[in-house]
Design brief:
Radius of gyration: 22 Å
CATH class: Mainly Alpha
Distance between the termini: 89 Å
Structural class: mainly alpha
Shape: elongated
Strand order of the largest sheet: 1-3-2
Number of strands: 3
Largest sheet: 3 strands, antiparallel
Strand content: 5-15%
Order of helices and strands: HHEHHHEEHH
Low-confidence stretches: none
Helix content: 40-55%
Number of domains: 1
Oligomer: single chain
Number of helices: 7
CATH architecture: Orthogonal Bundle
């Protein structure tokens, strides 16, 4: 018995043939690769980021298992966000100011990363980064 599909371009008909088709996951499990865009969104807007700001942005999209806490343990979301920011600090892209704020560093590696992300998003680099990069890499001609 052959099944006839009336509208071959309709994805709903595919679900009846092969089971449920999920085109997107409403609450994916968090990984550093999924957290980094949230870090850079805040960084490009403000020039600095706190872990709590990233958690606030990520938690509304996170899988319930990632935000569930047992007693005093840290949630999986907290651990992934901390690991993501710490990884960016280790790579020299962010620097810890010591007061809970992490800012984009002005090292060549950090500048390349920030410029790549800014270009891909058609965004604007934070003002402090432009000032630091200008002071570090540009010296006006001496009269």
């Amino acid at each position: 018995m052959a099944m006839e599909i009336e509208e071959p371009n309709d994805l709903n008909c595919l679900g009846g043939c092969v089971g449920d088709v999920f085109l997107f996951d409403e609450s994916p499990k968090l990984t550093p690769a999924r957290v980094r865009p949230f870090v850079f969104a805040v960084l490009l807007l403000r020039g600095a980021v706190r872990t709590d700001e990233v958690l606030g942005a990520v938690n509304i999209h996170a899988h319930p298992e990632d935000i569930r806490s047992w007693e005093a343990e840290a949630t999986q979301a907290e651990l992934v966000v901390a690991a993501t920011i710490f990884g960016l600090v280790q790579k020299g892209i962010l620097r810890d100011r010591g007061d809970g704020l992490f800012v984009l560093d002005s090292t060549p590696q950090a500048l390349r990363t920030a410029i790549s992300i800014t270009s891909a998003l058609d965004a604007q680099l934070p003002d402090h980064l432009l000032q630091e990069a200008g002071a570090r890499f540009y010296s006006p001609p001496q009269p």
